[in-house]
Specification:
There is one protein chain. The longest helix has 11 residues. The chain folds into two domains: 71 residues, no CATH class; 33 residues, no CATH class. The protein starts with a helix and ends with a helix. Strands 1-2 form a two-stranded antiparallel sheet. It has a two-stranded antiparallel ribbon with strand order 3-4. The protein is elongated and about 55 Å long. By secondary structure, the chain is α+β, with helices and mostly antiparallel strands. The protein is built from five helices and four strands; from the N terminus they run H-E-E-H-H-H-E-E-H.
């Protein structure tokens, strides 16, 4: 979103803008990957920076919620080790995540 936001601001100031993508597909950290039929976000933006996404869409007179269906993900990810039976779960709720970390 950083590159797109910079492009938007430069275009608004009258510059001609071309956006280049380093990867084989668009999106950078905002892209995703599919593993065994499950989709994963490629970066933190959808999870952590919705206000930033909303701002960028507003700058183009667009509505994020009208263009992109958003769904709340309760269980974001889980970390486990083959050496230990304990698992750390990162959840949408910071309070529940904290409780789980304290229990471990």
């Amino acid at each position: 979103m950083g590159g797109l936001t910079a492009a938007i601001r430069l275009k608004q100031r009258g510059f001609q803008v071309t956006v280049f993508e380093a990867g084989g597909f668009p999106g950078g950290l905002a892209s995703g990957v599919q593993v065994e039929g499950t989709d994963f976000d490629g970066g933190p933006y959808i999870l952590l920076d919705r206000p930033g996404l909303e701002w960028a869409f507003q700058q183009l007179n667009l509505s994020l919620s009208e263009r992109i269906p958003m769904e709340r993900i309760e269980k974001i990810y889980e970390v486990s080790s083959t050496e230990h039976s304990q698992r750390i779960r990162i959840l949408h709720s910071l309070e529940k995540t904290r409780e789980g970390l304290e229990a471990v």
